[in-house]
Please model this.
Amino acid sequence: MYSQRYYKLLNFSCHAATTLGVSCLKFHLTKQKFFLCKKSRVKVKRSFSVFLIVSIIWAGQGLDIWKHKGWKANAYFHITYAYSLFSVLHTLSLGYMILFADNIVRLLNLTLGYFERLHRKYISLYSLTLYFIQHTSHTAPAASLAFSN
Model:
């Protein structure tokens, strides 16, 4: 169902995310399966600790501005609030990735396998049926005209 370009793009995106420490998932191009390795898990844990510190700092800045200056009086409060919200959400998603990485890999592999089975079972039949309908519909009116005279 997927072309080889899709798998190459998936491999590249997983490799880029793993290199940055955003994801611990890797993709094996020849087996076409997701997997985990220890180095990528260590990078994600380091990234998680860095983002945890950053989110604490941003949340502290936002609380400090809100407590001492008020949120209406200071224009920086909204920016600080947005950054703290982003960093908290990112930290939570990394924490989820650390806790449930095995389940995520299993789910993604099952999804890829499901779409491959779906393609083998139904899409090939659909394309053959569509091909048959298109080619028989062009000849059917001519045959009916020949018999009507």
